[in-house]
Amino acid sequence: MKKTTLLDEIMDIVARILGIYLILLLTFWFADKEKFWMLFYWGIGIVVIVIFLFILSKKQDKKRKDNLIKDIEGSSLERN
C-alpha cells in the first residue's frame, strides 16, 4: 500500500474540485453566458485568496523558524 502524505490528499481533493468547476464552466458556457462569467469571476477570486493565504502562511513559517533559531542561539550563549 502506497504511503500518502497530507499534501497528496489535499492536492487530490483540489484536483477533483477543479475538475467539477471546469465541467460547470463548460456547461454554463453553452447554456448561460451570464452564469458562466459570474462563476468564472468567483473562481478567480477564490484562487487569488487561496494563493494569498498560502504565501502568507509560508512567510509566517519562515518567521517562526528564524525566531526559533535566534532563541536557540541565545539560550546556548547564555549557558556558556
Blueprint (SSEs and pairs):
Blueprint: H1 6-31, H2 33-79
Helix pairs in contact: 1-2
Please provide a written account of the structure.
With 80 residues, the chain is mainly alpha-helical. It has two helices and no strands. α1 (6-31) runs antiparallel to α2. The longest helix is centred in the C-terminal third of the chain and has 47 residues, at 33-79. The radius of gyration is 22 Å and the shape is elongated. The model has no long low-confidence stretch (mean pLDDT 86).
Primary descriptors:
single chain, 80 residues, mainly alpha, 2 helices, 91% helix, elongated
The rounded Rg comes to 22 Å
Compute the separation of the termini in Å.
50 Å
Task: Give the DSSP E fraction (strand runs of 2 or more residues).
Answer: under 5%
Structural class: mainly alpha
Q: Report the principal-axis shape.
A: elongated
Which percent bin holds the helix content? over 70%
Mean residue pLDDT: 86
Number of helices: 2
Model regions low in confidence, pLDDT < 50 over at least 5 residues:
none
Give the number of DSSP strands: 0
Count of discrete structural domains: 1
What is the H/E string? HH
- Largest sheet composition: none
